Amino acid sequence: MWVVGELGLAHERIDAGLAYGKVNEPWYRAMNPNGRIPVIDYDGFVLWESNAIVRYLARRQGRDKNLPPFRAAQSERMRLDPGR
After folding, report:
1. Are 28 and 35 within 8 A, CB to CB?
2. Is residue 68 within 8 Å of 56, Cβ to Cβ?
3. Is the N-terminal amide bond of 38 cis, ω within 30° of 0?
4. CA-angle at 1, arms to 63 and 17, nearest 5°
5. Ordered domains of the chain (ranges, CATH)
6. Would you state the pLDDT for residue 71?
7. Does residue 40 carry a pLDDT above 70?
């Protein structure tokens, strides 16, 4: 949420974890089969794992001069292997 605020992105926040229980609902599991938070849906591109999300948003908005330009395929690899 900090990065979303820094980038000034319009968003809808849905509290999903712990007491909210949304992580076990089918619509959430369709986005993130691990049932963990956070997860984003950015114009139809779904991504989870906080590090991958932050890097994706920074690249997408062109706000991180130390990262190469945005590539959806690269973000998909980061989601599958967050250690990259």
Report:
1. yes
2. no
3. yes
4. 145
5. 2-80 (3.40.30.10)
6. 62
7. yes
